[in-house]
Structure formats: structure tokens, C-alpha cells
Specification:
single chain; about 140 residues; mainly alpha; elongated
């Protein structure tokens, strides 16, 4: 039961972090990209919806990997990737004559955040595996 509560707590904290980051992105779009055809309200709806989906699906992906449920991990991972990319797809499709630097920054954020997510996922999996081995001894 303790492990279940810990998983719920960590998943909830992760969702708070993801939603906090989405607020930062919404403010950034309002100040830097709204004059290029990006509707801040539409972006905010897409960002918040996809952030909630991303937060839940990424947590479920990690838990499925830890629990060695590969099929579930793949399904949640696919949802996670789609939710992660949705706001940026909107920016690229709705933006009119975005400055080159906007594309560079957005793509750089996608790559950096993606690399951080993969490294963090590997770290969590390795830690979980080593904890499982310690408990079984």
C-alpha cells in the first residue's frame, strides 16, 4: 500500500510540474508569438489539455515500464509523444512569418526536453530495477 501511495504522490507532483511549465509556455507565447498569428487562447487550451494528457501518460509510461508491462508502456508512450508535440504543431501551423529564431528556440526546446525526458526515464528504470533487486535479496 505504501508503494501505491508513493506512486500516486509522485505522479501528482509530476503533473503539477508539467502544468507549471505549460503556464510558462503560455505566457511566453502571449508575449513573443501572439503578433505572428498565434491565438493565445487557442494555444492555452491546446497547451493545458495536452499538458494534462502528457503528465498522466508519461507517468503511466514510466510505471508500465517499471512493472514490465511493455504493451501498455508502448501505448502510453505513443499518447505521451502526441500530447508533447501538439502545442508545437499548432505554433508551426498557425504562425505567420515566424522569425527564424522562434523555430530554432522551439525545436531546441523539443530536443532538449526530449533528451532530458529519456535520460530521466532511464534513470528511473535503473533505480527501480536496482531497488527491486535489493528487495528480493
Amino acid at each position: 500500500m505504501k508503494l501505491f501511495r508513493r506512486r500516486i504522490l509522485l505522479s501528482g507532483l509530476w503533473l503539477v510540474v508539467v502544468l507549471s511549465w505549460s503556464v510558462v509556455r503560455i505566457v511566453a507565447v502571449k508575449f513573443w508569438l501572439s503578433q505572428y498569428g498565434i491565438n493565445t487562447v487557442v494555444f492555452a487550451v491546446i497547451e493545458l489539455t495536452s499538458s494534462m494528457t502528457y503528465g498522466v501518460s508519461s507517468a503511466r509510461t514510466v510505471l508500465a515500464i517499471i512493472d514490465k508491462r511493455r504493451k501498455s508502456a508502448k501505448s502510453w508512450g505513443a499518447v505521451c509523444i502526441l500530447a508533447y508535440l501538439a502545442p508545437d504543431v499548432y505554433i508551426f501551423s498557425a504562425g505567420k512569418s515566424l522569425p527564424l529564431m522562434s523555430y530554432v528556440v522551439i525545436v531546441a526546446l523539443i530536443v532538449v526536453a526530449g533528451v532530458v525526458a529519456v535520460v530521466d526515464l532511464r534513470h528511473r528504470i535503473n533505480r527501480s530495477v536496482s531497488n527491486s533487486r535489493l528487495k528480493s535479496k
